[in-house]
Amino acid sequence: MINNENLTMLTDFYEITMANGYFQSGNVEDIAYFDMFFRKVPDGGGYAIMAGVEQAVEYLKSLHFTAEDIEFLRGKDIFCESFLDYLRNFKFTCDVWAVPEGTPIFPHEPILTVRGPVIQAQFVETMLLLIINHQSLIATKANRIVRAAKGRPVMEFGTRRAHGTAAAVFGARAAYIGGCAGTACAIADRDYGITALGTMAHSWVQMFPSEYEAFKKYAEIYPDNCVLLVDTYNVLRSGVPAAIKVFKELKPKKMGIRIDSGDVAYLTKKARKMLDEAGLTECSITVSNSLDEYIIRDIILEGAQIDSFGVGERLITAKSEPVFGGVYKLSALEQDGVIIPKIKISENVEKITNPGFKTLYRLFDRDNHKALADVMTLDGEEIPEVDGYEIFDPNAIWKKKRLCNFYAKNLRIQLFDKGTCVYECPDIEEVKEYCREQMETLWDETLRFENPQTYYVDLSQNLWDVKNKLIEEHTIR
Amino acid sequence: MINNENLTMLTDFYEITMANGYFQSGNVEDIAYFDMFFRKVPDGGGYAIMAGVEQAVEYLKSLHFTAEDIEFLRGKDIFCESFLDYLRNFKFTCDVWAVPEGTPIFPHEPILTVRGPVIQAQFVETMLLLIINHQSLIATKANRIVRAAKGRPVMEFGTRRAHGTAAAVFGARAAYIGGCAGTACAIADRDYGITALGTMAHSWVQMFPSEYEAFKKYAEIYPDNCVLLVDTYNVLRSGVPAAIKVFKELKPKKMGIRIDSGDVAYLTKKARKMLDEAGLTECSITVSNSLDEYIIRDIILEGAQIDSFGVGERLITAKSEPVFGGVYKLSALEQDGVIIPKIKISENVEKITNPGFKTLYRLFDRDNHKALADVMTLDGEEIPEVDGYEIFDPNAIWKKKRLCNFYAKNLRIQLFDKGTCVYECPDIEEVKEYCREQMETLWDETLRFENPQTYYVDLSQNLWDVKNKLIEEHTIR
């Protein structure tokens, strides 16, 4: 993915065995619909943030099997030559719809749909899930952390603990969409325009005979923006006094200290006092030690004196829950232009899929523009705005609510039309700003870190009827 | 990393600000030593598995700054032209030593050391940590899961939940080193020779009018190895009966069923009985539903009838603890050929670094070849094998133990000599086999999943003396 290499073969092997199966069964031209959705927000949160669409688009644009791929598959001795020929001439011709990046998303919603010949629509499962699961995970986690920081900038500092190179780069990208101010990762700046910053490691301080000399040299070289790491030996007895001495002597334009260990609530209060007493009220304090949304919330409540945060491993790995469980399920077939809804049954009611080709609407309050509910309908259904609209909980249908004074917005956009990309991915700054705006449409109750109010994601009566008819048909008596 | 792209700029930005700092301070030729080590085994385990050395070697071989990199850095407006010239002609000339892949490793050990001009030795920090942290994390987790399976093959099935493309591919590689039998990820097979397998998704079953027809078609196409997914509708009432019918009719050479949901202990016992009663005793049962070492251990204890496991998200993200906390710290400087040990002090005793250029020995029992202890010494020290050797706990020096009848092995090998790679990375099969052998040198007490015995990692008396002298010098009174 970095540098647009061809990753067509980055797929679960079963996508290929199934493709060969469909090819040999004569199903090559069968049209199928697949939905991507997730069942549960990580960390027990009330919302997730869609991310990764740009990389998904790049992936779909670049799909093709190279001679090397064909040779590898031939070596497996289970594929026929006519199928390998088919792959050699493979061309992606599907339609794709998705929720744009930066949009808050909720469980069970079709956040992405692929329609097209079954071999193709099935084949792209693995990478679409991989890309969107990963970036949505990190964007969601970053958004929680940024909200905990209450307006103080949060930098993504996790490169060295990321799960490989793509996790570092696209994790930085997703964190930026979720609200981070920048990253430590230089290549994410070069390739994706995400501001990279960084100053010094403890080793810089160790390289010089004294902390004072290390700081002084740094301030001489970087007089415009001088952030000194003050915890190599002893923050309050050595690091901060040395920093104060250097700041007073060399007067850098912007000055700051960073603390990377110890009890940052205690240390920042003490350090702030020392800096202020030295007349350095404009000197900022950054902390960066195993932070996440819970610790940031707590140390701010304790009165820690912090101007910005660097968040590493717990952001870049989404440590508290490192899995975004997006799945990709068959929702319909098309025969002679007629859509035949398909369902996957499960013992667990939550795991039963929503069948059919669907439209996803978000209903907003006309007065305050808050999001009231999302409604899935069958494709082509419209939500009548004029006379009010009754929604009901699909898991408890007696729970009904009539919405008035709202407008409905189709949440999804088309990315591909018969294999041609018809979507221009917005600039990352635009995505980030869109995410910030959309987050403001959510109620505080949905935003709570723990035990949030469940946002309404309902089915239209028509879709509900179709679903229940299919469940009935599949019930074994 | 996939396809050897140049990732020189995949680095924390501070590596570059520090490099410019050293350049401008006239420290370009100063020789520094950096150690990579970790402080804590994930999941409270007793050992970790070293992995990622091959990718680290590839990275170091390919280090160079392109014109695009230089242009990007120039745009930051903080670097002088002479420094950018230096980068343009940058050539890696360091020495590098590391523990080979597949070796069990323990906290505080220098698992990798870089010696060379400080700018270079510092610069490679981010990527070396990223690569080795990631792969060691997954190899360690995989090894726990494989041990829980008690000889049953474990396949890595996590591609769709991996944190980006590199996490999928190198996660599959690391899982293989840790003992997995293969992967679902096709590109990991094509590029790294890790056997990829895969059969069908639920959508295959949904595409046909009935489960029976779906299974029959699959068995016709794959008569040599036919594994049927039996939980699309109802495992015991629909899936297994349909599979039995197809197996009896078509008699595939190898046959198996896979269950991906529900209570697999209960379902596999029932399914085994049904298969056996149908005379299909050779039909294997695979399960693959949110597994990890704890669940696998427990369902085997419950008598689940399972022949192999597919393990996805909890392996590929190391879900229970997704961070391998390797760090990279300055341990020495060299001036006029004399090594000057350096230390990083911390309030937390565990966080104080081990100074100096060191050798890492593993001491094995001459009779049963079990690992007795690891000992770090200053470079050049030897461990006398003949008259016995007294080790002591560096955190409790009154705890002493005299070892006799052992042999000492230098655990590390040299990867680079003045920038030239002098190491040929072994084949992945060799690494996997080496890992399996080395795991047999550990005691059961160290292998326990929870609350294992802490393996001895001690310092030689000389190293201990150097460390304490430095602590004394840095103590602020």
TrEMBL record, chains A, B:
<feature type="domain" description="Nicotinate phosphoribosyltransferase N-terminal">
    <location>
        <begin position="9"/>
        <end position="133"/>
    </location>
</feature>
<dbReference type="InterPro" id="IPR040727">
    <property type="entry name" value="NAPRTase_N"/>
</dbReference>
<dbReference type="GO" id="GO:0004516">
    <property type="term" value="F:nicotinate phosphoribosyltransferase activity"/>
</dbReference>
<comment type="similarity">
    <text>Belongs to the NAPRTase family.</text>
</comment>
<keyword id="KW-0436">Ligase</keyword>
<comment type="function">
    <text>Catalyzes the first step in the biosynthesis of NAD from nicotinic acid, the ATP-dependent synthesis of beta-nicotinate D-ribonucleotide from nicotinate and 5-phospho-D-ribose 1-phosphate.</text>
</comment>
<comment type="pathway">
    <text>Cofactor biosynthesis; NAD(+) biosynthesis; nicotinate D-ribonucleotide from nicotinate: step 1/1.</text>
</comment>
<keyword id="KW-0662">Pyridine nucleotide biosynthesis</keyword>
<dbReference type="Pfam" id="PF04095">
    <property type="entry name" value="NAPRTase"/>
</dbReference>
<keyword id="KW-0597">Phosphoprotein</keyword>
<dbReference type="GO" id="GO:0005829">
    <property type="term" value="C:cytosol"/>
</dbReference>
<dbReference type="InterPro" id="IPR041525">
    <property type="entry name" value="N/Namide_PRibTrfase"/>
</dbReference>
<dbReference type="GO" id="GO:0034355">
    <property type="term" value="P:NAD+ biosynthetic process via the salvage pathway"/>
</dbReference>
<feature type="domain" description="Nicotinate phosphoribosyltransferase C-terminal">
    <location>
        <begin position="358"/>
        <end position="467"/>
    </location>
</feature>
<keyword id="KW-0328">Glycosyltransferase</keyword>
<dbReference type="InterPro" id="IPR013785">
    <property type="entry name" value="Aldolase_TIM"/>
</dbReference>
<dbReference type="InterPro" id="IPR036068">
    <property type="entry name" value="Nicotinate_pribotase-like_C"/>
</dbReference>
<dbReference type="Pfam" id="PF17956">
    <property type="entry name" value="NAPRTase_C"/>
</dbReference>
<dbReference type="InterPro" id="IPR006405">
    <property type="entry name" value="Nic_PRibTrfase_pncB"/>
</dbReference>
<dbReference type="GO" id="GO:0047280">
    <property type="term" value="F:nicotinamide phosphoribosyltransferase activity"/>
</dbReference>
<dbReference type="InterPro" id="IPR041619">
    <property type="entry name" value="NAPRTase_C"/>
</dbReference>
<protein>
    <recommendedName>
        <fullName>Nicotinate phosphoribosyltransferase</fullName>
        <ecNumber>6.3.4.21</ecNumber>
    </recommendedName>
</protein>
<dbReference type="InterPro" id="IPR007229">
    <property type="entry name" value="Nic_PRibTrfase-Fam"/>
</dbReference>
<keyword id="KW-0808">Transferase</keyword>
<dbReference type="Pfam" id="PF17767">
    <property type="entry name" value="NAPRTase_N"/>
</dbReference>
<feature type="domain" description="Nicotinate/nicotinamide phosphoribosyltransferase">
    <location>
        <begin position="154"/>
        <end position="334"/>
    </location>
</feature>
